[in-house]
Amino acid sequence: MEALFGKTLSELKDITAENGLPSFSAKQMAQWLYQKNVTSIDGMTNLSKKAREQLKEKYEVGRIAPSKVQASVDGTKKYLYPAHKGLFIEAAYIPERDRHTLCISSQVGCKMGCLFCMTGKQGFQSQLTAGEMVNQVLSLPESDQLTNIVYMGMGEPMDNIENVLKSLEIFTSEWGMAWSPRRINVSTIGVEPAMRRFIEESNAHLAISLHTPFNEERQKLMPIEQVYPIEQVIDALREYDFGRQRRISFEYIMFAGVNDTPAHVKGLSKLLNGLRCRINLIRFHPIPDSPLRGSSHETMEWFSNELNKKGLTTTIRRSRGEDIFAACGLLSTKNMVKQNP
Ligand code: SF4
């Protein structure tokens, strides 16, 4: 059975055409799937009985509830969702006072091998479908409370750009969930060609994982630097007009003695000169078998002040969900495979 969940309006139109159904049924189906939370084709009650029977021969809705939840002392929750092939993914729900964010995954595992990331250690297992990305949002028990979606969970979104763009279309279209793209942030380590496509085909915010302004150092932390050096990625960003509404931010995990020195302040100021952006300074959560350690709070404060003096806007991110391995860089489902897929 093929899942209807994750189909765009134009794909639903193809399905109606192939099955001899009126084309307006495609919009009705989209509304059932993305606005009325239907869980079965039988629930699509404004489609004729004959149409529903016909659809049921080949399709199912394909919504999947999370199979496990872990709650942190700070209110963060980590949800485990079954994916195809008996695999699993994680999504982190981060409630704050007036902001309720869901951090979603775009792949099972990741092939990019960043040194500081548990998902990287898991290796690449599979791409997620657009339906599996949208499902993390709509099947979340707190779905109605969400104000923001960030693609910062497992995987590199630009390595699954087709499905990421499709999921963004579903999130932001009037026939879909009608979210403002300004409430969605997609991260990348700087996979330039797909990043350009994302900038051109979507209006969501963009977050770049930067972590150091220096090539050699970045290569050690993030092998992608050998393919798309950070200056090249930033030059690419300078070609686009992001307008006043769309935001570029840089994620900067702070490692003690590695990327938290005066030279790094200078390097960042040179690299990002003139670019309207924000730098998010993130505390490092140590992972097993890694020599990296996080910078102290004092160093982070100092680093932030120095960058501010150079005219760069910074935020020190509060760490959330570390005790349940839901914090930045800690998501992994390496050893989880469903027994009877
Ligand atoms: Fe992949 Fe992102 Fe982890 Fe790098 S930081 S290994 S791109 S999930």
From TrEMBL:
Matching SUPFAM superfamilies: Radical SAM enzymes
Protein keywords: 4Fe-4S, Cytoplasm, Disulfide bond, Iron, Iron-sulfur, Metal-binding, Methyltransferase, rRNA processing, S-adenosyl-L-methionine, Transferase, tRNA processing
Pfam families (alphabetical): Radical_SAM (PF04055), RlmN_N (PF21016)
Catalytic reaction(s) noted: adenosine(2503) in 23S rRNA + 2 reduced [2Fe-2S]-[ferredoxin] + 2 S-adenosyl-L-methionine = 2-methyladenosine(2503) in 23S rRNA + 5'-deoxyadenosine + L-methionine + 2 oxidized [2Fe-2S]-[ferredoxin] + S-adenosyl-L-homocysteine; adenosine(37) in tRNA + 2 reduced [2Fe-2S]-[ferredoxin] + 2 S-adenosyl-L-methionine = 2-methyladenosine(37) in tRNA + 5'-deoxyadenosine + L-methionine + 2 oxidized [2Fe-2S]-[ferredoxin] + S-adenosyl-L-homocysteine
Domain Radical SAM core: 96-323
Database matches in PROSITE patterns: RADICAL_SAM
Cofactor notes: Binds 1 [4Fe-4S] cluster. The cluster is coordinated with 3 cysteines and an exchangeable S-adenosyl-L-methionine.
GO CC, alphabetical: cytoplasm
Cofactor(s) this protein requires: [4Fe-4S] cluster
Residues bound to [4Fe-4S] cluster: 110, 114, 117
Annotated CDD domains: Radical_SAM
Example GO molecular function: tRNA (adenine(37)-C2)-methyltransferase activity
EC number(s) recorded for this UniProt protein: 2.1.1.192
UniProt-listed GO biological process terms: rRNA base methylation; tRNA methylation
Subcellular localization(s) per the UniProt record: Cytoplasm
Binding site for S-adenosyl-L-methionine: 155-156, 187, 209-211, 285
Active site: 90, 328
PANTHER family noted in UniProt: 23S RRNA METHYLTRANSFERASE (PTHR30544), RADICAL SAM CORE DOMAIN-CONTAINING PROTEIN (PTHR30544:SF5)
Family: Belongs to the radical SAM superfamily. RlmN family.
Note in the entry: Reaction proceeds by a ping-pong mechanism involving intermediate methylation of a conserved cysteine residue.
Functional summary from the UniProt entry: Specifically methylates position 2 of adenine 2503 in 23S rRNA and position 2 of adenine 37 in tRNAs.
Protein name: Probable dual-specificity RNA methyltransferase RlmN
